[in-house]
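FAQ: What does the model actually see?

It sees only this:
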Amino acid sequence: MSPARSRSQFVDEIAREYACDHTSPPDAIQQELQAVTRERTGRASGMQIGDDQAVFMEILARSMGARSGLEVGTFTGYSALALARGMGPEGHLLCCDVSEEWTSIAREYWEKAGVSDRIELKIGPALETLRGLPESAQFDIAFLDADKVTYPDYYEEIIPRLRDKGLLLVDNTLQGGRVLEPESTDDSTLAVRTLNERIVADDRVRTVFLPLGDGITLVEKVAGE
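And it is asked to produce this:
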């Protein structure tokens, strides 16, 4: 079985290797999904989360008893597989993506993993999907890993739809370290930097910023907000 794979760029290499050696490794289905993603998507395969992050998300969903989940940005389905496993057979995960091609890989491996019955995939602009949800729709856990320019808008759509003490995980919040560089002013970096500042100042939530992968921000909705 392959050792856990990490995408963490901001952790000492020796510490990162030690952490991977002491993290539960991917199973055969996850390894196959990784290989197929590399084969069919080429350089885009770098968008797939690391194994350490997948284990973290699965354990988090399971430990909080999540039964209703949301994912914005699905790619080939590795992160959704982790969440669906964590939520268990009674869970329901709504996935939003714009690519039929990439999510066709996801569908194939969700089926192989036996979680396809708990995942609903919506193809189309995620903002339209979110804004079209009934007002009563609420989620226990959400994962945001889509186009960065729209991150602030996604955030404002997701937070009201989280239950009290619900969790949002925002991926790529370090942007390869560019959020730390004042001279980096591309649209994606500006949007993520803006969201990072918004989250830490938002009295609707409590948050912790983790240097896992390319930065992942864990956001808890404060009860009653």
